[in-house]
Specification:
This protein is mostly beta strands and about 200 residues long. It is about 5% helix and about 65% strand. The strands form two sheets. An eight-stranded antiparallel beta barrel has the order 1-2-3-4-5-6-7-12. A hairpin with a 4-residue loop joins strand 6 and strand 7.
Length: about 200
């Protein structure tokens, strides 16, 4: 007891890392058919890795930073291949609910920040890419199960949204900037399912 108040029984800092499965939610255009439709279906599924750090100004409210990386790739028998990488850096707010059994916590979060996109395209001996960046936002729901006083196993579901309105296209020889028309925007929206470790009371 200090000056009639309880000592802090939670850590101001919470940080950790996670990894899992990610799925791009944008609909495949109806005009894409045959092997190219199957190719685009494969490009919708990928892996995600990331980490975060939050400072809790009170027991339930934390403010911090998040980083995430997502990768998607697919290829055709002809040798054509696409390899997509997305990066997300954002400011995050977490609301933490400690359940009756204090080993269990529910977390609700919102974040907003910067998203980047790069699609490396391989065709025969030629190599090019499409790239761009945009602002985006995300929402998440998480569950922490305490393993020890300062370590927890984390399960999370997150949704990130964003659209590219302008892209750079390189055909292997030159690069040009293209402003996309409405209906042609490149969606970066994706759903993530992850598991990881978090540190802090």
């Amino acid at each position: 007891i200090i000056l009639g108040k309880k000592e802090l029984d939670f850590s101001r800092w919470r940080y950790g890392f996670h990894g899992g499965y990610t799925y791009r939610t944008a609909k495949i255009h109806d005009q894409i058919t045959g092997p190219y439709r199957e190719f685009n279906k494969k490009l919708k599924s990928g892996i995600t890795l990331g980490g975060d750090m939050h400072y809790f100004v009170s027991e339930p409210i934390g403010i911090g930073l998040k980083y995430g990386f997502s990768r998607f790739n697919a290829s055709l028998e002809s040798g054509y291949k696409e390899d997509i990488a997305m990066h997300n850096i954002s400011v995050s707010v977490l609301n933490r609910y400690i359940l009756k059994d204090e080993r269990n916590r529910i977390l609700l979060g919102f974040n907003i920040g910067f998203q980047s996109y790069k699609n490396k395209i391989y065709e025969d001996v030629n190599k090019g890419y499409i790239s761009g960046s945009t602002a985006g936002f995300g929402m998440e729901v998480g569950y922490d199960r305490k393993l020890s006083k300062s370590t927890a196993l984390h399960f999370g579901v997150a949704y990130l949204a964003g659209n590219l309105y302008k892209i750079k296209v390189n055909d292997g020889y030159q690069t040009q900037s293209i402003k996309l028309d409405k209906g042609e925007y490149e969606s970066l929206s994706r759903l993530e399912l992850s598991i990881g470790l978090k540190f802090g009371k």
